[in-house]
Every structure is written in C-alpha cells, then in structure tokens.
Amino acid sequence: MEHKEYKRIHPDARAAVLFVHGIVGTPNHFAEFVFRVPEGMSVHNLLLDGHGGSVQDFSHTSMQKWEEQVKNAVDELCTTHSKIYIVAHSMGTLFAIDRAIENEAVKGLFLLAVPLKIAPKPRMVSNLCKVYFDKIRPDDEVAQAAKRCYGIAQDKNPFHYFGWLPRYLELFAKARKTRKRIQELQTPCRAYQSARDELVSGASAKWLLKNETLSVVLLQNSGHYYYTPADFFFLKSEFDSFIVDAK
Questions:
Q1: Is the pLDDT of residue 247 over 70?
Q2: 63-78 and 165-181 are packed helices; what angle lies between their axes, rounded to 10 degrees?
Q3: How far, in Å, CA of 42 to CA of 77, rounded?
Q4: For the chain, what are the domain ranges?
Q5: pLDDT tens string 152-191
Q6: For a surface tag, which of 12, 36, 58, 61 has the fewest beta carbons within 10 Å of its beta carbon?
C-alpha cells in the first residue's frame, strides 16, 4: 500500500482543510473524509516525516520535525486562505491543538482519539503482533483496520525497531504538555473518543471536558483505528456538518 501526501490547493478559496495522521500512521487514514471536502475548498492531507517508508526512516525522524512540519503546513495555507480547519487522528490531534492555540487563522478542529492520557491495552500489543507477522484473519476487523492505518513498510528484523523507543517517549511527553495547555484552547472543536480505544486512556475525555467550550463525543463500540459501521456512519455525518460550518 502506498502512503502519499495529497494536495488540492485553490489559491482563490477562502478555506482550507489540513489532515494530520497519528504516529506510525498514514494519510490513507482519512481516505473516506478527504473526498467529502467540497471542490471549492483546498485540501492538504499531510504525510509526516519518517512515515511512508522504512522502519529505519521512522527511527531517524523526531517529534520536533513533525511539529515543525505541521506548523509550516498551516503557515503555508495561511498565505492564500483566511480560514484553516484541521482534521487529525491520535498524535496528530496534539499538533492540531497547538496550532489552534497559537494561530488565530485556525477556525475549527475535528479530532479523533485525542491521546491526552496514554494507556496501551493488551489488545494493542495483540494487534501490533498480528500486523508485524502479517497474520490477520479476514474476519478480524480490528486488526485489519490497524493494518490499513499503519504507514511503515514491513520489516521482520526486531532489532530495527529499537530506534522507535525515543519516538514513543516523545509522544508521552507531548501528551503531558498538551494536558497542561488544553484550557487555552478556545477554537471550536469537536472531539470523538472511543470507549474501546486500545491506546488512549478514557481519562483523556475527562481532560478534554475540563474545557467547557469543547464538544466531546464518546463512541461506545469503537477502538483506536476500528469504527463500527454505525459509528463510522455517524462520524462521516458529523464531518459533513463540520465542513458545512467551515464554508
């Protein structure tokens, strides 16, 4: 599966939508959302540095590079658009929150699985093993979803993954920093958390709710990557509403 950045820029458009995926993720995560953005709006579906390539590529990137990349993407869109809207998943939501706090051109956030508190569950390890060994049953929808959202090339050498530890330590540190900033967020924001999330703790929703301006919805039957058909239909309807408000 290819993992490519996608841009559709209309210099005369007033509004642009920036998509930001999560750690070891892919722009493909937003495939069902990107095409729902009207032609009259610009789109930038970002591929973060070190993603879309090898395990070693990911080891050699950094949180600082990702933060700068998202900031630069927003700044670039601001040169030709007056309103920026950010759609993000997991780690990408932390960058989206930063941009909304620091750049008044960001007018709205649509956030999935905000990891303000991270608590990996055993099923997260199980799914990672299934993806790693490429042993996924056709009827295992949760693992299949994890595989579709995985943006790093297969590598069966376990020693190559040692370089990933600093990236995940950076993620935990970033989550702690964002918890302290969440009260600063005044931009209209819709956050959708999953009750069966295998990575994000349920305490994340409690942190989000400390900011009374945020809209927080708990999806009772979905996980970090997998959404039940009913929940996914609901999310797409919510996204359509978000885009209508963004025009």
A1: no
A2: 50
A3: 9
A4: 6-246
A5: 998 888 888 899 999 999 999 999 999 999 999 999 999 9
A6: 12
